[in-house]
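Listing S7. Sequence submitted for prediction.
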Amino acid sequence: MPVETMMEIDMKTLLATLLALIAIAPLAVADVRAGPLPEPTGKTLLVVRGNIERTNRGDAAHFDLAMLEALPGRTARVETPWTNGTVAFEGPLLRAVLDHVGAQGEKLVIRALNDYSAEVPLSDARDFDTILALKKDGKHMSVREKGPIFLIYPFDKNPELYNEKYFVRSVWQIKEIEVMR
């Protein structure tokens, strides 16, 4: 068989394989999100409950550090009313956590370790790159440093968010998110 013919066959096979992979990729993602969440293997840092489709303990979704860090996230270099100068906060996108559990609703009630809570429209997670910050300047945050989880709005991308309305929603020492209709 001539080399040109063999190359044509190999290219056709490669193209067919790539097209097949592209076609089944959405099914693989859907399959990952179907069914219960895996159990955390470490200490639970966050509990998501309420109007969610995927759980791993009773009617709630429990996340340890590894589970949260495995989700899509970002680093925000921002100035906040609670820090000096520009600080780098890093963690999963709030929308990634909510998508992972199949959250459906209109608002979130975000609760801190001291039982402080704030109502946050679910649209804030969809419309902005809000993050559940786990790290500040590359280090995991302790409770004393407003950790282990701090809701950070994208003040770096949306300077118009730098106001009292969003400061009140920026809960720190987060322990739970409840998804409400």
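Caption to Listing S7: primary sequence and predicted structure tokens for the chain studied. Helices lie at 3-33, 65-69, 94-101, 122-127, 164-169. The chain has two domains: 1-34, 36-180.
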